[in-house]
Amino acid sequence: MTSATVNREVLPTNVTPLHYDLQIEPDFKDFKFDGLAKIDLKINDENTDFIKLNTLEIDIHSVKLAKDIKPSSIEYNKEDQISEFYFPKGTMAKLAGSATLEIKFTGILNDQMAGFYRAKYVDKLTGETKYMATTQMEPTDARRAFPCFDEPSLKATYAITLISDPTLTHLSNMDVKSENVVDGKKVTSFNTTPKMSTYLVAFIVADLKYVECKDFRIPVRVYATPGNEKDGQFAADLTAKTLNFFEKTFGIQYPLPKMDNVAVHEFSAGAMENWGLVTYRVVDVLLDKENSTLDRIERVAEVVQHELAHQWFGNLVTMDWWEGLWLNEGFATWMSWYSCNKFEPEWNVWQEYVTDTLQHALALDSLRSSHPVEVPVKKADEINQIFDAISYSKGASLLRMISKWLGEDVFIKGVSQYLTKFKYGNAKTEDLWEALSVASGKDVSAVMNIWTKKVGFPVITVKEDGNKITLTQNRYLSTGDVKAEEDETLYPVFLAIKSKDGVDNSLTLNEKTKTVELKDSEFFKLNSEQSGIYITSYTDERWAKFGKQSELLSVEDRIGLVADAKSLASSGYTSTTNFLNLVANWNKEESFVVLEQILNSIGSLKATWAFEPEEVRDALNTFTRGLVSKRAHELGYQFSNSDSFATQRMKVALFGAACSSRDPIVEKAALDMFAKYVEGDKKAIPALIKPIVFNAVARAGKPEDYERLFNIYKNPINNDEKLAALRTLGRFKDSKLLERTLSYLLDGTVLNQDIYIPMQGMRSHKEGIEALWGWLQKNWDEVSKRLPPGLSMLGSVVVICTSGFTSFKSIDEIKKFFNTKSTKGFDQNLAQSLDTITSKAQWLNRDRDLVKDYLKKNGYSK
Ligand code: BES
Ligand code: ZN
After folding, report:
1. Is 310 one of the annotated binding-site residues?
2. Average pLDDT rounded to a whole number, residues 248-267
C-alpha cells in the first residue's frame, strides 16, 4: 500500500468477486424486494475463514458457501456498512481457490432515491398513482440493492434476472436472454454483462413505453411511462448520433448490445450513466421542443452526451478509487462540450464553457475550503461531497488546458490509447498522463500533477515598465486573505500572451516571478482564449485601456476579462471601479455570451448588495438598464424561426435583464403577455422567454397571480413549464406567500427531488433568503431525515439556505445553529457556504461607499 491508499476504508481482499448471479423480485404492496445473490468468488488467502461484503438495510435470510457450508456466525458492522460471515476454521483451504457464496435476502423498495427504490408518479392516461421500481447505485448504494463488494475496482460480470407481474417492463444493463411466464409471473433473464463496477449495475421494473432511433448498429431507445414517450425522440436521435461519433473518435466500439435511456419520475441527480441503461430525471431527457427554452434544449443535449461519454470514461475504464472521480466526471463534462461543438457549431459551446464551467470551477476553487482535484476520500459519506464543481468543472478545465497545450488531435489520440490499454479495468490519473506523454512526447505528469494534487489556482499580477512586464503568481482566494503557508504552490502557468502580432504560446511561468519583454505594450492580454486556470490582475491603466480595445479581443478573451475584473474586485485585488468601467464601456457588446457574462457578474455584485439600502440597489438596476434597455427595445421580443441561434439568445438575454432591472416598457410587455396567457391565449408568451415572464409576474407580486402560477404548476402544458412556475413561486416577496411556498416543500406538493427548485427562486431576494434560513432551522430534523447524508441533496439544500447571506453576523448565527448538529455528509458544503459569505461581507466592508459614490458620480442615482 502506498501512503495514499493507507487511509482508505476498503474491504479485505482475502476474497474477490468474479461473477454475480442476481435474482430480484420487487413487491409493490409492501415496498420490499426479495433477492437471491450467487457470487462466484476467487479465494486469494486460504488462511482466512471470513467473508466481508457491503450491505445496507438488507435483511439476510440465509448464507451458504460452496453449496452447503453455513457460517458459524454472522455480524454486522453498522459504521462501515459491512456484513461479516465467519466460517469454520479451515473452510477456505478446502475450496481450491474459488467458491460460490449464496445469499437469500430481502431489501427495502425505499422512497429515498437510492439503491433499488420506488418512484411515485401519476399515470398520464388513467390518473392513477403508481410506482416504478428503479435503481441508483452511484456512489455506494448498490449495497442497498444486493450484498456486494461495493468498490469501483472490484469489477465482476453480472447475470441478472427480474421477476414481476407480467404487465410490467423489465430492463437491465444487458439485452434479454429469455423471458418466460412462470406461475403467473414474468421472469426475465438478461445476458451476462462485461466486467464492470457495482455502481453501474441497473435494473428497472415498471410500466413503460418507448421510442426508438434506428441510425445506429444496435437498438437505441428512450423509455418513459405511457403518454410521455413521444418527448423522448430528441434524446433517442441524439443518442444514436453521439454513439456513432464517440466510436469514431475513440476508435473503440460501444461494447453492449443495446442502449436504453429511461425517464425516471423521482431521481436525485440529473442522470446516471449505468452501462447500457442510462437513467434520467424526466426533464433532463424528455423534451417538448416547441414549448421549451433554449436552455432546456441545450441542457438535454448536454446531459445525454455527458452520460454517453461515460460509457467509455467510467464504464469501460473506471477510476480505481473515488479519489479519481474527476477522471469520470471531468472527462464526461469535457467530452460533452467537445461533441456538442461538432454537432451544433452555432451554439459556440466553448465560448459558453468560459462563462459557465470555468467560472464554476474558479468560484469553488477560490474558497479556503476547496479541495484538490485528486482528493483522498475514505468513507461512503465523504464520497457524495466530491461530486462538485472541482471534479466536474475544474476537471474539465484541466482537460481543456491540456488539449490546447498538446493540440486536440494529439490529445484525443492519447486518450484513445489510454482507453484501449485499460478497457474493462481500472486506471489512475497517472495512467492518463502516461498515455498523453507517449502520444505527445511531452512530460505531461510534470505539469499536471501540481494541478490535480494541489488545491487552488493562482492570480497573476502584472506590473508594467514600458515594454517590460513583470508577472508574479500567488494563490488566489476570493476572501483576498491568503496566508504565507497557503501560498507555497508554484503552478505551471501557460501564459499565452496575446498581442497585435498574435499569440505567443511558448512562455510558461514555473517560478514565482518572471519578467517578459514585449515588442509593443499598446495591446497585450494574458491567458489568450482563457484556456488556463488562473486570474490575471492588471494595472488600473491597463483595465481602462481594455475598455476601449474590445475589437482586439476574442469573445473568450472578453468573457475572461469581465469575469476576472469582477473576481478581482470582490476579493480586493483591484478596485470595483475597474470592473464597473469595463462593462459600462462595453455597452454595445455583440456577443450574447459576453453579454451573459456581464450580466452574471453584475448579478453577483447585486447578490452581494442584496441587503443594502433600496436606493443603492435601485441605482444598480439603473446601471444595468443603461447596458440593456435601449437594445432590448430595438431588438424586441418576437421570436421567429428565421432568427439565428445567436440572435435568439441575445433577445432572451436582453429581455431578461431589462425585466429584472425593472425596465418599465419591457416589464409591462411581460405582464401583458401573462394576462393574455392565463385568459387562454396559449401563444401569448413565446416559449423562449416564459420563465422570464413568470419572474416578472412574481416581481409585480400580486397574490392572484401567485394563485395562477400555482395552477400552472398543478396543470402545466409540459414539465418545463411546471418547473418554471414552481421556481417562480419562490420569487414572491410577501411573507404570507413565502410561507405558503415553504409549506409546499414538505407537505407532498413538491417532490423531494424538486425541493431545491422553489428554494432557488427564494434565494434570489433578501426576504426569501431570510425566510429560507428560518425554515431550515425550524424543519431541520425533518429535512435531514428526508434527504439522508448519503445523497448530495442535503448538502445542496444547506448551501441554498445559507449562502445568500452577506454579513459576518449571519456567519455566527449559522455556525451556532450547526454547532449542535451532526454535519456528516455536508461538512464541506457548509464550510464552502461560510467562505462564500465571508468573501461577500469583506467586499461590502471594503467597497460599500465606493460603489455608492461611483453610482452617484456617474448619474445612476441622486
Ligand atoms: N455520475 C453522475 C450522476 C451522479 C451524481 C451520481 C452524483 C451520484 C452522485 C452523472 O454522470 C452526472 O454527472 N450527472 C449530472 C449531469 C451532467 C450533465 C453534469 C447531473 O446529475 O446533474
Ligand atoms: Zn457524470
Report:
1. yes
2. 97
Rounded to the nearest whole angstrom, what is the distance from the C-alpha of residue 339 to the centroid of ligand 2?
A: 15
Alpha carbon separation from 561 to 413, 461, 624, 730 (Å, rounded): 33, 14, 18, 33
Which residues have C-beta under 5 Å from ligand 2, the single-atom ion?
329, 332
Asked if residue 100 and residue 23 are part of one domain, the reply reads yes
120 and 196 share one domain:
yes
Cα of 270 vs centre of ligand 1, distance in Å, is 6
The conformation of residue 52, written as its DSSP 8-state character, comes to E
Residue 698, classed as helix, strand or coil, is helix
Q: Tell me which ligand sits closest to the C-alpha of residue 328.
A: 2
Domain residues for the domain of 234 are 208-312
Residue 786 is predicted with a pLDDT of: 87
Does residue 777 register a pLDDT over 70?
A: yes
Residues 6+ apart with CB under 8 A from 841: 806, 807, 808, 811
What is the grid cell recorded at 762? Answer: 427564494
pLDDT of residue 5: 59
By the 8 A CB rule, do 498 and 521 touch? no
Q: CATH no. for residue 87?
A: 2.60.40.1730
**How many other C-beta atoms are found inside a 10 Å radius of the C-beta of residue 733?**
16
Res. 736: pLDDT tops 60? yes
Q: What is the pLDDT of residue 790?
A: 67
Three-state DSSP at 53 gives: strand
Q: What is the dihedral of CA 579, 580, 583, 584, to 10 degrees?
A: -150
Q: How confident is the model at residue 6 (pLDDT cuts 50, 70, 90)?
A: low
Side-chain-side CA neighbours of residue 375 (13 Å): 23
